[in-house]
Amino acid sequence: MESAADGDGCTTPDVHLLRVGYALDGDDSCIADARHHAAAFLDRASDDQHLPVSARARDLTQLVVSELVTNTRKYAPGPVLLELRITARTVEITVWDSDPKIPAARATDPSRIGQHGLEIVKAVAEDFEIQREPVGKRITARIALSDGPGHL
Questions:
Q1: pTM of the shown model
Q2: Could you give the CA distance from residue 84 to residue 37 in angstroms, rounded to a whole number?
Q3: Beta strands in 5-52 (DSSP E)
Q4: What is the pLDDT along the chain (152 residues), one digit of tens a residue?
Q5: What is the DSSP letter of 3?
Q6: Structural domains in the chain?
Q7: DSSP readout, 83-125?
């Protein structure tokens, strides 16, 4: 895990205060493992670094990790890379997989069973982006650490 501060010892909002990465093998246990890693990371951020991690941020981070890793498990063969970063305001969740195809959220359809993962992630994330990589794609979602006006 890495920490960062600017030259005067004060942290800046966009600097990654903590960062950790995990390689998941893409088997049946990788989704639960990813959720566990996310929860442990946020516990360390709160307990060791005294960062304000709200219950909402914990729940949404685990939800987003679960949805992104589930999609990767279903649609991209092979290992999954998960990176978690914290700034002064957000937790950033990044998942890399081997499939270069850029997924699109489907139109909202309450009668559709399943395939709502990307819709859910986009609905709860403050920011969301997908970038094609030389060997697949990278999906990043950002969740607010604290509960503020306008949060679910």
A1: 0.83
A2: 9
A3: 18-24
A4: 433 333 444 444 567 789 999 999 988 899 999 999 999 999 999 998 888 899 999 999 999 999 999 999 988 888 999 999 999 899 999 999 999 999 877 777 777 676 678 888 999 999 999 999 998 999 999 999 988 655 44
A5: -
A6: 18-144 (3.30.565.10)
A7: EEEE-SSEEEEEEEES--PPP-PPPP-TT--S--HHHHHHHH-
